[in-house]
Specification:
288 residues; 19% strand; alpha/beta; single chain; 48% helix; binds ligand C2E; binds magnesium ion; eight-stranded mixed beta barrel; globular
Length: 288
């Protein structure tokens, strides 16, 4: 229907500014509702965090977790991050949301330490816009110092978009983050446009191979297998860890093991877990 509306609009001529259909109207209305609700989500305490365990290959040893944001809106119900994160980025709300996530994680790490939960590295997603903030590293360090948590327990995930929008600034920020003791990884690797030469200069700790390349691995998709193999080789030659995302089946795991992938994350090992369930998972799987 959207297509036919578009076709119709085209047929009405180039200078037609009356492209207004009920579909579009209700879509815009929905977006507006979403933005409004998102505006209040922080103060209404509607966000929560889940932790998805990550495992070493081939040992299956628990090595860390990625924290993922969940939003239960009082007005709209559960909204997926795939929907609200891009929206928050466009509306300028993402900086506050990402700082909230980071602070919650650091506080959680302090409480877990006090409770004697074994220490693990937690990876936190950072949106592109936060990289424009010259005080980013300083403000992250301040939170860790306030809570007495070592930056070594925190990994920051950035995307290729961040890295290439302003490579010189990204390089500086990554260098500063690592100098402060944080780990840095590149998320969704393979979906953006990374320049190999920058990759070398960035000095990242980890490449996260995007789920889209992992999906068809076990179906003997020769192309995806070659891509994943190439990414793993690249990571190794640049002294980085390769982690495959979205691993769902034992077959995918086996192919990744065969290709020499270092780490995996995905439903095969564990779904993202609420903090209590995550602690239980850690207690069952942690080997010192
Ligand atoms: P991401 O950082 O690449 O996170 C991985 C996504 O894959 C998560 O989706 C996770 O739940 C999902 N996933 C993990 N394993 C599997 C699997 O085996 N099968 C399938 N089908 N999915 C799997 P989620 O939680 O919906 O998050 C989507 C994206 O939203 C994230 O992608 C990330 O880009 C963004 N995001 C989530 N939390 C935050 C946050 O706190 N801040 C920012 N800036 N972005 C966030
Ligand atoms: Mg991520
Ligand atoms: Mg990812
Ligand atoms: Mg993703």
């Amino acid at each position: 229907r959207a297509e036919s509306a578009m076709y119709e609009a085209k047929n009405r001529g180039r200078n037609n500014f009356q492209f207004y259909t009920p579909e579009r109207h209700s879509h815009a209305g929905q977006q507006l509702k979403l933005i409004n609700a998102l505006n209040f989500a922080l103060e209404r305490d509607e966000f929560s965090l889940v932790y998805q365990p990550q495992a070493a290959v081939p040992s299956h040893r628990l090595i860390g977790a990625e924290v993922l944001l969940r939003w239960h809106s009082s007005e709209l119900g559960v909204v997926s991050p795939a929907r609200f994160i891009p929206m928050a980025e466009r509306c300028g709300l993402i900086a506050d949301i990402d700082s909230w996530v980071f602070t919650q994680v650091v506080k959680q790490l302090r409480r877990w330490r006090e409770q004697g939960v074994p220490e693990l590295v937690v990876a936190v997603n950072l949106s592109a816009s936060r990289f424009d903030d010259p005080k980013l590293v300083q403000s992250l360090v301040q939170v860790t110092e306030q809570e007495g948590v070592s930056p070594k327990l925190l990994e920051l995930e950035l995307t290729e978009v961040v890295a290439l929008q302003n490579p010189e600034q990204a390089l500086q920020t990554i260098t500063d983050l690592r100098a402060a003791g944080f780990r840095v990884s590149l998320d969704d690797f393979g979906t953006g446009y990374s320049s190999i030469s920058y990759l070398k200069r960035f000095g990242l700790d980890k490449l996260k191979i995007d789920k889209s390349f992992v999906d068809d691995l076990a179906n003997l998709n020769a192309t995806d297998k070659a891509i994943v193999k190439g990414i793993i080789a690249l990571a190794k030659s640049l002294n980085m860890t390769a982690l495959a995302e979205g691993v769902e089946t034992p077959e995918q795991w086996r192919v990744l093991e065969q290709l020499g992938c270092h780490q995996v994350q995905g439903y095969y090992y564990s779904r993202p877990l609420a903090p209590e369930a995550f602690v239980q998972f850690v207690q069952e799987h942690y080997e010192s």
